[in-house]
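Page 42, continued from yesterday. The earlier attempt failed because a stray header line got pasted into the input along with the sequence. Redoing it now with the clean sequence only.
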Amino acid sequence: MSWRKGEAKSSKRSIFRRRGLSQWCANSCERIICDGKRIVLASSAKEDALVSYKRIAGIEDLVREETAAGDAERSKPHPDIFEAALRRLGCVAPHEAIVVGDTPYDAEAANEVGLRTIGLLSGGWSAEELHAAGCIATYCTAADLLARYDEPPLVEL
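This time it went through. C-alpha cells are written below.
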C-alpha cells in the first residue's frame, strides 16, 4: 500500500485516538519516570516521523532518549534498533530492561540481544503468535498493561 506523507500522519493520529493510546502513552511514561526508570523509544521510523508520532502520542516532553531509522543498519526483526537503545541506556544490562511491542518482529529482535518483550495485541497479532515469537507476557490493550503495572513482569524491574 502506498501512503502519501499526510495520509500516514493522519492515519497514525486516527489510530491513536481510536485506541485511546495518547492518554495511555502519557500516563505510562509518567508512571515509569516516577518510579525512577528510564525510557528509550526504540523505533525504526525516520526521525521527522518520530517527532510527529511523539507529538500525536502526547509524549514529546516525557521521552528523553530515542532511536530512529538512522541509528540502525537493518530494521526488525534484526536487533539493530534495540542494540542502539541499549547504547542509549549506557550501563543497563539487557536483563534489566524490557521491551513493549506489538509485533512478533519486536520480540524476535529484542530476544536476539537478550531483552525480554511484553506483547500488546494492538498490532493485530494474536497472543499465541506473540508468545511463539518470544513474548514473556501479552496484554489486550495498553490500558490493560498500565492497570497491571504492579504485577510481574513489570514489577520485577
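Notes: The helical segments are 5-19, 21-34, 47-57, 80-89, 104-112, 127-132, 142-147.
Reminder to self: strip header lines before submitting.
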